[in-house]
Design goal:
Length: 407
Amino acid sequence: MSTFVRLGLKRIIQNQALNNNFNQKNVTFIRTITSKTTRMSQEDVSKPSPWPYNEKGYNLFNYFFDKTTSRLDENSKIIVVEGPLAAGKSKCAKQLASELDMLYLPEANLDMMYINNYGFDQRKLDSELPESCISWDVMDFLRNPKHRHTLRFQLQQYVVKLSQYIDALAHVLSTGQGVILDRCVYSDFVFAEAMFSQGFISKLGIKKYYEFRDNTIGELLRPHLIIYLDIPVPKVLENIKKRGISYEQDSKALTPQYLSVMEKHYKQNYLKELSKHSELLVYDWTDAGDVEIVIEDIERIDFNKYDAQDTHLKDWDHKMEEDWASLRHKYADKKEILMNYCNIPCFEVPELVVDAEDANTYHNVIEEAPGNKFLPGYNTHLGDTGTIFKMSSPHRNTLPLRERRTS
């Protein structure tokens, strides 16, 4: 009986989607991204309010009354600003987001993981933890890059970037608003390769890193556009010195050799591979370019110029309303399942192994930390109210928009 119901529902969905196609209600984008200035001169198109994907699920019933494509327009895009350290990516990405009316996501960092929903920084508990379980963030890595925790740090960086990119996809598909990221999960391997080249992580470690990557990266949709801000290594070192972040200036990791390997993998691997699927703009940013020129170049890109045989933007080529709904449900409602693909055994990598007693101590200490004892929203001693009327856990775990600390 359940089989007939399932088949019947699927047939209803398919028929509804076909009707949408015949009535020309399927998604049709204007060819180019447009700035706020340009959009102000255009006729205002009424769209549904953004779907509250952080608080509310998107199920089969919602599908019939809330079409994903009804919110999508020419600016419903994922844009990533890439480049070496101290290139000015954050400033450029923020300006682009403001001018294009998109959501800006700061570079994913471990502050997003270590600081909980109540503002408590779990790194304060390191003194109570065994050495094998202490926190290790970018400040620690740059000060002591050859520590055994460097591999764990890099894997956690990857996981946080993966989590953020899933959030970006959920946001675009649920609200229709585009997203601009300061770096993304696709380029994270350039850091791992640079670490491996300098002996900061082992051969077993880099193999395990790619096991994490290969197990998860195929679940995502590649960005529509990558903007690469190119500056030479000597200028990178000059900018690092100029911006005055002590743990960068005094770092044993940020050598010309390390930065050169990053540049090599950015240009010869990352940009080369992603340019087969995404639009690419590259700028000489040695003296910091003009963001207005970048915006003009973005507005000139025809995102609809590719045919069905082309690999460019293939991830985003969907004709059926059902396909868009499935993607929206996947990233907005099934994030926890996607993140579980990172649950990979690491017993063969010594630097990732923690003995049972240390692990038990870690869990006991972390679970008693302020804000960790109960689920978010249920910690009455920290000000949460109305817990007696709450019947479920938070809908999804969305990363906070938290900039990386500089001191």
